[in-house]
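New to this. Help decode both lines:
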Amino acid sequence: LARLVALGGRVLLLGAPGETMTLLHLAESLARAPGKRFVTYEQPVRVDGVREWRTFHDIDSTDGAFDYSRVVPEGQDPFAVIVRAMLDAGIGRTGTVGAADSRLFDAGPAVDFGVRWIEERLNAPG
């Protein structure tokens, strides 16, 4: 995801809901806010043609890197809320491709917005 940003890439949600914007996991990893959740897991990788098991430590992208319950209305997905806020702020474009409601985002501004959104809300008192 960082390479996508570095190369000036874009993300197209082609008929997909806002909660599927995987790019926001990069924003979560970069955001500095309390309570960030991590997981440790093992996964096989190839090293010089040989399969080895390696241990990785990363943000929890399954259960969520943060507890958004005090900043996101109950029953709503945090990524969907962030994507709506992004569009409201003029980041990204909406349109129809075929019969699909779609949204297009430049990756860099989308990640920057996501980091700011997370930090502003999760670092705020209360």
About this structure: Residues 2-122 form one domain.
